[in-house]
Specification:
The complex is a heterodimer. By secondary structure, chain A is α+β, with helices and mostly antiparallel strands. Chain A has 15 helices and eleven strands. In chain B, strand 4 and strand 5 form a beta hairpin. Classes of the chains: A alpha+beta, B alpha+beta.
Chain lengths: 433, 431
């Protein structure tokens, strides 16, 4: 075990004050001390995401993660939450395609208890059958609510079509029929096979020194092993669509339509990512939702919300445009968005737009690091995407390098309206004119 | 130690609260106005919220297109909120950009344009926001419950307003509302962050001291008479999920009963975080209602909470029912727990637990400069800043007998509205 760095205070997190330690069992521990408030936040992940789910039991990873806090060999469900709530702390687990993530916060004085509880949930969950059934009932209710949520249904369908054939196409929490197919015994089996320290990362920020954190984590998680744990597989790349797809999800009784359209975007480690991110900001985020917000909301008053998002993950990404619109305005809003995409892929952004966004990115950095949770998450992502501990220190320089030409080239590589997926959900659109 | 904020008042009535903190190179600037849906006359519901929208539509000095660009290029965040008793605007910026927030807020306190074209565009935007809300069963239920909970008090109205009022309100109505309420004497400037207090005070004073202030006409709001019988509110709509929302009349924030209610809330439905930023906190799985409703498989989820307001508002409990359960079953189990609070004294340990929970929630909020500045002004909207700093101590002083009295006085069926959203059918998404 080696302590890489010492902690200093009041600076942007970097190699000088992020302590990175690899425990003998493979767990990577990142610590950034901040003694200003008496609280601590931590976040982390391990390699047990939904891509391990059998297709007919989609949702198993999410279900297993949700079951971790429903009882351990040492504490019942009620004891777990009594210990947490008595001190005003929180702990939670959730699953994504690649990983099971977790996060917690407490007063610093309660961190040893929190790490002990984290370790227990990860290593000794018992998945009591009656708790499993409660979780199943909750999942089924959430599916019923999701089926009525226009934004959720538009987004779900968009992913199913855009990422067809790839794990990113599937919702991590599954579908009604796949969750009904999961047996109580599947949860401990999934846990036994996939949960282990290999590939696990834990990031802590707050009123604790690295030395204290290393000791406490070593004590709670240092002895964990799982010889069965497989190595995380490489996911295949996503196949591009060859033609556009347009679909409407009819949800009766709604007054507004949610619209999502777009296509594949760069993955996080793609050399295009930073230029795409700056470009996306100009397109749909800067100020009141960028060029898209300006034309759809500000100039035309056609929607309350209209924006873009670039979702860059490990093996692929998406570049999406979304809006909430009334049924008679759907066609107009799509046309306005496509006109902006056309402009964005044929003309370089202006120097003024570029400078504005660069300055926004650089100025925003300390705001995202205001709280312990923000620091903890930020450091975790540095590890997740292997960006280097000096990432935040070099951030401004990396942003300054982006040019209008590189944004245009990136946009041309990734934004192709000829194969866009366009999904609407809600009442039937009304054809106008 | 938490630094004492500097509090002062200019001759035109503007109140200034400053809290110097050097934990990050950031400042958070808030301006609070004592106007919200509480101050709206019949027929003008939603006017305060619409004025808030118009405050982003430019002044001669900061035209609409320049306004958000000016903030955005600093990397800062900004937003505004309209609520029952107040409207607030904030900017959190790199500390060296604080002049921008000062200039902008001072300017739009009295120079906003209310361009008729922008007013019309915003009418469409707000109507679209209203439509979006109507998509949400729980929103529709909440709306019906509040209407039933108050007969005459403006708290019965949604902050966004009704469709009819929003279609009728004119540009001149909006401008009058703005001129009447956006006065220095009706505002508080609250700033926290990385600055020197004296320098910041000079900066604020220099901008505002010559701003003329018209006297703010007080808005008289008649107290809502007590409820004398239980009321029901029923909403139907698409879906397959039944939602229950119960609203009891609750004390105003300034009343000492409010703190006792804070303990009761913590025990019954889990602690409510009053932070706007950096909040979150703990779950409610050991609360009495979770144990009695979720553990017994009557409902999928339960939450409860109250808001700090000028006039008595509501303490609300909301549940999502399991499909096979009936409203009566859930109500019976809930009433049993309320009866238990009325009949049996809670333990001192339970009260200490509620206070520790509140202490932790406030510690999380204190990590965050934006949230610290929020409290400087927010507490003044319904009480004073001392209300915030003394909150945890007030909770520790609550006694078991007081909790019992609160349950006996407030949690009576004749003081509540029982609201239910009844689904008409699956109506599931079909391609």
């Amino acid at each position: 075990m080696t302590v890489v760095n010492k902690v200093t205070r009041h600076s942007l997190p970097g190699p000088e004050d992020i302590s990175r330690t690899v425990l003998p069992n493979g767990i990577v521990l990142l610590v950034r001390s901040n003694q200003i408030s008496p609280s601590v936040s931590f976040s982390g992940y391990l390699q047990a995401g939904s891509f391990y789910d059998p297709r007919e039991k989609l949702g198993l990873s999410t279900f297993t993660a949700a079951g971790l806090m429903r009882g351990t060999a040492l504490r019942s469900f009620q004891q777990i939450y009594d210990d947490l709530e008595t001190v005003g702390a929180s702990l939670g687990f959730s699953s994504s395609t690649h990983t099971v993530g977790f996060g917690g916060r407490s007063l610093a004085e309660d961190l040893p208890m929190m790490l002990k509880l984290l370790a227990e949930c990860l290593q000794q969950p018992v998945f009591p059958p009656e708790q499993v059934e409660k979780l199943r009932a909750q999942a089924l209710t959430s599916f019923a609510i999701r089926a009525q949520d226009t934004a959720d249904m538009a987004s779900l369908t968009f992913d199913e079509i855009l990422f067809a054939g790839h794990p990113y196409a599937l919702p991590e929490d599954g579908y009604k029929e796949t969750v009904l197919a999961i047996q109580a015994a599947d949860l401990p089996a999934f846990h036994q096979q996939h949960y282990g320290p290999h590939g696990m990362v834990l990031s802590i920020a707050g009123a604790v020194t690295p030395e204290e954190a290393i000791d406490q984590v070593g004590e709670s998680l240092g002895a964990w092993t799982n010889p069965q744990q497989p190595l995380a597989p490489e996911l295949s790349p996503v196949e591009s669509l060859t033609q556009p797809v347009r679909r409407h999800i009819f949800i009766p009784g709604k007054s507004q339509i949610d619209l999502v359209l777009g296509g594949l975007g760069p993955k996080r480690k793609d050399p295009d990512f930073q230029a795409a991110s700056i470009g996306n900001h100009i397109l749909g985020q800067f100020g009141m939702m960028g060029r898209i917000g300006d034309i759809v909301r500000e100039k035309s008053g056609l929607a309350y919300s209209a924006s873009t998002s670039l979702n860059a993950w490990i093996s692929a990404g998406s570049w999406e445009f979304s809006a909430g619109v009334s049924p008679e305005n759907v066609g107009k809003v799509i046309d306005l968005i496509l006109a902006e995409v056309d402009r964005f892929t044929t003309e370089p952004v202006s120097q003024e737009e570029l400078q504005d966004t660069k300055s926004a990115y650089i100025g925003n950095l300390p705001l995202g690091l205001e709280s312990n949770a923000g620091v903890s998450r930020s450091i975790l992502n540095i590890e997740r995407f292997q960006l280097g501990l000096d990432y935040l220190l070099n951030y401004a320089a990396s942003i300054e390098k982006i040019t209008a030409e590189s944004i245009l080239e990136t946009a041309q590589r990734h934004l192709n309206p000829a194969i866009f997926v366009t999904i609407t959900a809600g009442p039937q659109p009304i054809e106008v004119g | 130690m938490d630094p004492e904020p500097c509090q002062t008042r200019l001759s035109n009535g503007l109140t200034i609260h400053l809290k110097e903190l050097h934990t990050a190179p950031i400042i958070s600037h808030w301006v609070w106005y004592r106007v919200g849906s509480r101050y709206e006359a019949p027929g003008f519901s939603g006017i305060s919220h619409w004025v808030e929208h118009m405050q982003f539509k430019g002044t001669p000095k900061f035209p609409t297109s320049q306004l958000d660009k000016a903030i955005s290029r600093t990397g800062g965040s900004w937003n505004a909120f309209t609520h029952l008793d107040w409207t607030t605007y904030y900017e959190t910026l790199p500390a060296d950009q604080s002049a921008l927030a000062l200039d902008l807020e001072c300017d739009r306190m009295h120079n906003s344009l209310f361009d008729p074209v922008e007013v019309e565009a915003e009418r469409t935007v707000i109507l679209s926001e209203l439509d979006g809300n109507q998509n949400e069963p729980r929103h529709r239920l909440g709306e019906a419950v509040r209407k039933a909970a108050f007969d005459s008090h403006p708290y019965r109205n949604e902050v966004i307003g009704t469709k009819e009022d929003l279609q009728r309100i004119t540009r001149d109505d909006l401008y009058r509302h703005y001129q009447r309420h956006y006065q220095p004497g009706n505002a508080i400037i609250a700033i926290a962050g990385d600055f020197d207090t004296q320098e910041m005070l000079d900066q604020v004073t220099q901008r505002y001291q010559n701003l003329p202030g018209s006297p703010v006409e007080p808005v008289e709001v008649s107290p809502e008479p007590p409820m004398t019988a239980e009321r029901r509110a029923e909403v139907t709509g698409p879906g397959s999920t039944t939602y229950l929302q119960i609203a009891y009349r609750a004390p105003a924030a300034r009343e000492s009963d409010f703190f006792t209610f804070g303990v009761l809330d913590s025990l019954l439905s889990g602690p409510t975080s009053l932070n706007m930023f950096g909040g979150g906190g703990t779950t409610n799985k050991t609360s009495r209602l979770y144990k009695t409703l979720v553990e017994t498989e009557l409902v999928v989820s339960v939450r409860g909470g109250m808001q700090a307001t000028i006039d008595p508002y509501t303490y609300e409990i909301a549940c999502t029912l399991r499909p096979e359960r009936t409203l009566e079953q859930v109500l019976q189990a809930l009433d049993d727990q309320i009866k238990r609070l009325q009949d049996e004294l809670v333990s001192v340990d339970e009260i200490h637990r509620a206070a520790k929970q509140a202490r932790a929630l406030f510690a999380y909020g204190n990590e965050n400069i934006t949230n610290q500045a929020f409290w400087l002004g927010y507490a003044e909207m319904f009480a004073t800043y001392d209300w915030f700093t003394g909150y945890v101590d007030r909770l520790t002083q609550v006694t078991p007998a007081e909790v019992q009295r609160i349950a006996q006085v407030y949690l009576q069926p004749q003081h509540r509205v029982v609201g239910v959203y009844l689904p008409e059918g699956p109506g599931e998404g079909t391609p």
